[in-house]
Amino acid sequence: MLEGTQNFGSIGHFRLGSKPCFAGKTGFSPISVETFGHQCGNLAPRKTHKPLIAISVRIVWNLLMRVAVGQVWQETNTLNPCPTTREDFELFGVSRGAEMVSKMAHTNELGGFIQSLRQWPETPEIVGLARLPAWPGGLITRDAYEWIADEMASALDRALPVDGVLLALHGAMAADGYPDVEGSILHRFRERIGNTVPLVITLDLHANITPQMAAAVDAMVLYHCMPHVDIQETGVRATGVLERVTNKGARPVTAYQRVPVVLPAERANTEAENGFAVRRKQRLQELERMPEVISAGVSVVQPWMDIPDLSSTVVVVTDNDETLAVELCRELSSELWDTRREYLGELESIEAAVQKAANCTEGLTVLGDAADATTSGAPGDSVWILQELLKYDWPNLAVVTVVAPDVVEQASLQGIGSQLHVELGGRRDTRFGTTVSLDVEVQHLFDAEFALSGHIGTNMPISMGKSALLAINNIRIIATTRTGPHFAPELFQTAGIDPFSAAVIVAKSPCGFRAVYTSRAHQIISVRAPGCAPSDFWTYPFEQIPRPLWPWDEMEHWSPQPQLFVSGISRS
User: Residue 420's domain spans which residues?
Assistant: First the structure.
C-alpha cells in the first residue's frame, strides 16, 4: 500500500504500508515520489462511471541507517555499606529517547557517539535508548538492577529494527544477586538484535570484563587514560569501530585474557611524564593505529569488589586476524603481569601528610584521600584527615568535603551566620569511619550543581543537592547532601572558594584529581587512611574473589592463554 498525498506530476512524501521498508538497511527518511497520470478511456468500473486513472510511480529511495545509542553507568564498591538505589540513578539524571540525544550531544561517551555519527558521510538516524547513570557507590539493589535491565530492554524493543548499537558502560557494576550487571544487560541486547547487528561498547579502564560480556559484543573500546580525560574521545573511537564494521566490511575477532592481578590506583597515572602506565597507554595507541587492529585495551579492574569473577583483563580486537589478536593479547597480558609490583607504593600516614602540609609555606598542598574516594564508590563522609587538620592553626584556608545530609538540613534550618554544634562523619561509613563534634558557623548555603570537565567528565551535569559551607577558624567544611566528585574545583567554586588559593584541600580521589591539580599545586600527597576504598585492599576481608589472585596470593609464574571470541558478523 502506498500511503501519502500526491498530485499529478508533483513530488510527494510517502510510506509504503504501515511500517518502514527494509532493503538491506532498516529505515528511511520520507521517500520522494514522482507521479504521472493519464485517463484510460472507458476502462472504468461500471458502478463508478468514472475514468480510471493509471498512475506511474518513480520512487527515489533515501535509505538511512538506524544506530541506537544508550548508557548504563555506575562503579560498584561492595565495601561501601550504603546500597545504590533506583533513586540514586533517578537523582543523578535519567534521560530517554530524543531528549537524551539532545541533552547529551556534547557530554562524555554519548557525546562522542552522537557527534561522530553526525559526521559520517551518510548521516544515520540516531535512536536514543536511555541514559541510566548513578555516581559510584555501594552494591546496587536488586530492585534497581531489575528496573535498569527492563528499562534498557524496553527501550531497545521500541527502537528496533536497528543497524547498529553503541552502548556506554562502566564495566564494574554489581547488584544484589547479579555480580555481572553489564554482562546480563548485553546478553539481553544480543538476544533481541540477533547475531548480525553490530554491538560496540565502551568501558572504563577499571572494568571487570567477564566472558559473558565478551561473548555478547562485537567490539569493546576502553579508556586509555588515568585520570579519565579521554572519555568523550573513547566514544569517538567506538563510533569509528562501528563505522568500520557497518560501512567498511570489518569482521571483528577478539582475543580476551583474564590476568589474575588486582592493582591499586594511586600509581596508575598515564598522564605523568614517564612510567609504566604512560608506556602502556602509548603502546595501546600505537596498536590502534595499525590497520589490522580495531581496538586494544587493558583493564586494571576496580579493586573494591568482592565478587566471583574479579580480575584485570586484556582485550585485542582485530579485523579477521585471529593470530595477530592472540599475539598482541599475549604481549599486553605479559606486560601487565610483569609490571604488577610497580603499582605498589608507600603512602603517607595522616599525621605525616598533615605535618608536611603545615610545614609548606607557599602554594597549595593537595591531600589525596584515596580511602574515602567518592570516585571509587566510597561513602564520602570520612573525617579522619579533618580530625588531624583541626590540631593546627592554618594561616590560610584548609578545605575538606563531607557527605552529611543531616548537617546540611540543620544548617538550612538555622540559616547563614548561625552557630551550630554538629557531628560529622561515621554516619554513612559505619565500618571504617569516625565522628568529630564541632562548633561551626554557617557561612553559605547553596545547591551543589555544576558541569564537570576533566577526570570522569566532559560537560557532565552534576547535582549533589543542598549544601552548606561551614567554618571553624581557617578550616572550611563543604557539607553536601549527596555524593559526587569530592575533588572537583567546580565543587569548591560553587561553595564560593577558590581551591587554588587555599593552603590545603582534601581531594577524595586516588589518582584522578591529578588531572587538574598537578600543574597548580605546590605539592600533592597521597594519604593512607581508613575507608572503603583503601590502597591496601588485600588486607581487608574478601570472601568471594577467585583464588589464586595477586596480591592476596604470591604467584611467581603465570603465562597468558588468550580466549578467542568471533563475532556473529564474522561468522556470517
Answer: 350-527
